[in-house]
Each structure stands twice: as C-alpha cells, then as structure tokens.
C-alpha cells in the first residue's frame, strides 16, 4: 500500500483495511468466561467482510463441499477458448446452433 496506495481503488483499500484489522482488537473484542475452568478469554471481533479468509472460511468450506458432491466421478478438465474479434460479426450473422457447433469442432481440433 505504501508503494501503490494511490493507484489502488478506494473499495479495494477498504477491503484490505478490514482484513488487516480482523480479530486484532482494532474492531473491538468480546470477553468470554470458560464454564469449565472459569478463566477469561478475550477474542477480537471479526470484520465480516465477504473477502476475508478468516470470516468466510466456513462459508467457503461449505460451498466447496457442496460443489465437490456435485462432481461427476470422471477425470475432466476445463478448456477455455476465445473467438477472435474479427470473427464476431460472422458468428452474430450465423445461427447460434451452427456457430456453437463450429466453435466446438474448432476447439476440439486445436486441443488434439
């Protein structure tokens, strides 16, 4: 931030500020007393930002487990290809079905 702070968008700076203060005490804290031993424990408040790895760890884990359960039991990979800008008009003028089929055939040929 010291080097590029002026070029980082304000929204990004706010997120970074939240994440760096999360559970440090700068956002306040909560005092708990253990029922078993009676000792006091202090815990810093979390920032709650959706980008924070501390605050969103449970949501991320739950999402990942759900996505993993949806995977097919086969080996697979994702291939992404783009259409050159000068081909855009040709694709727009052709039916979607023909365009999609042509793109998939071309992608298959380029991948093999």
Overview of the structural elements:
- With 112 residues, the protein is mostly helical.
- The chain has four helices and two strands.
- The chain has helices at residues 10-21, 57-70, 88-93, 96-111, and strands at residues 29-33, 40-44.
- The protein has a two-stranded antiparallel sheet with strand order 1-2.
- A hairpin with a 6-residue loop joins strand 1 and strand 2 (40-44).
- The longest helix has 16 residues, at 96-111.
- 1% of the residues are buried.
- The mean pLDDT is 87.
* Beta-strand proportion: 5-15%
Shape: elongated
Largest sheet: 2 strands, antiparallel
Radius of gyration: 25 Å
Rounded mean pLDDT is 87
Order of helices and strands: HEEHHH
Strand pairing plus helix content: what structural class?
mainly alpha
Question: Roughly how many Å apart are the termini?
Answer: 45 Å
Task: From the structure above, extract its key features.
112 residues; mainly alpha; two-stranded antiparallel sheet; 43% helix
Architecture blueprint of SSEs:
Blueprint: H1 10-21, E1 29-33, E2 40-44, H2 57-70, H3 88-93, H4 96-111
Antiparallel strand pairs: 1-2
Concise synopsis of the structure shown:
The chain is mainly alpha-helical. 43% of the residues lie in helices and 9% in strands. The chain has helices at residues 10-21, 57-70, 88-93, 96-111, and strands at 29-33, 40-44.
